[in-house]
Amino acid sequence: MKKNIGRDKANQMIAEWNEAEHRSRVWRMRKLIGAEKADWLVSPGPLAAMYYHEARLCWLSGSYVATIVMTQLAFEEILRKFFRRTSSGNRLHEGKTEIDDASFSQLIHQASHENWLTKSETKRLTKLRKELRNRYVHTKTTTSGDDQHARPEYIIYDTDAERRIAAPSINGGSIVADALEAIELLESLFPEISTRLAFASGAPKTS
Fold first, then answer.
1. Phi and psi of 169, rounded to 5°?
2. Torsion over CA: 19, 24, 30, 36 (sign)
3. Distances 177 to 64, 124, 182, 188, 196 between C-alpha atoms, Å
4. Among 28, 60, 122, 157, which is most buried by a count of CB atoms within 10 Å?
5. What kind and span of H or E run contains 205?
C-alpha cells in the first residue's frame, strides 16, 4: 500500500504550485482589468449580474471552460430578461416560440432583427455561441487528416476540445485563448448591451 506524502513534502508542493499559479493569475488579472468597463448606468438584473461576476471569477481562477459557459449565460440572460419585459404573451417570433424556451441563437436573432444588437455585436455573439461555447459543450469527433498524422499514435484526441486543452500546439488554438476571447467579449460588450436593453425596457437607473 502506497504511503501518503509527508507534511514537509506536501507544503513544498503547495508552495511551488502557489508560486506558479500566482504568476498565471497576475497575467489573467491584467487582462481582465485591461478590458473592463466599470461605468455601468443600469442594473442588468440580479441573475445576469451574477453570471457576469462568476464568469470573471472563473477566468481569474483559471477555470477556462467555465469562463466560456458563464460568459454565454450572462449574455443569454440579459436578452431573455429584455424580451420577458417587452414581448407580449411571453413569446418570440410572432408567437411561435415561448421566451422561456428560446435558445441563445433565437434570442440573438430576434434582438438583431429588432435592431437591439448591432451587426458587429450579432457577429461576435454568434461566434461566442458557435465557435467558443459549442466547441466545449457540444463536442464533435475530430476528422482532420492532418491532425491524425501530427501526433504520436498512442495519443488520441477524439475532439477539437480535447486537443485545445491537452495539446494546443497541434494545429494551433488553445482553451486559454478561447477563454480570453470570451472574457474580453464579456468586458467589452456586456455593460453596453445590458445598459441599452435595460433602458429600453424601463429598468431603473443605479446610483
1. -70, -20
2. negative
3. 9, 15, 9, 16, 29
4. 28
5. none
Degrees to nearest 5, angle at CA 123 with 119 and 128? 145
Q: What does the alpha-carbon distance between residue 196 and residue 41 come to, in Å, rounded to a whole number?
A: 9
* CATH 3.40.50, domain 44-139+157-200, yes or no: no
DSSP, res 64: H
Mean pLDDT, residues 50-70 taken together: 94
Structural domain spans, the chain: 44-139+157-200
This prediction's pTM: 0.80
Q: Any bridge partners for residue 97, and if so which?
A: 92
Non-local CB neighbours of 72 within 8 Å, separated by 6+ positions:
104, 128, 129, 132, 133, 182
Question: Are the CB atoms for 141 and 159 separated by under 8 Å?
Answer: yes
Beta strands in the chain (DSSP E): 91-92, 97-98
What is the per-residue pLDDT across 167-183, written as a single tens digit (0 to 9) for each?
Answer: 877 767 899 999 999 99
pLDDT of residue 11: 81
Q: Are 48 and 189 in contact (CB under 8 A)?
A: no
Number of residues in the chain: 207
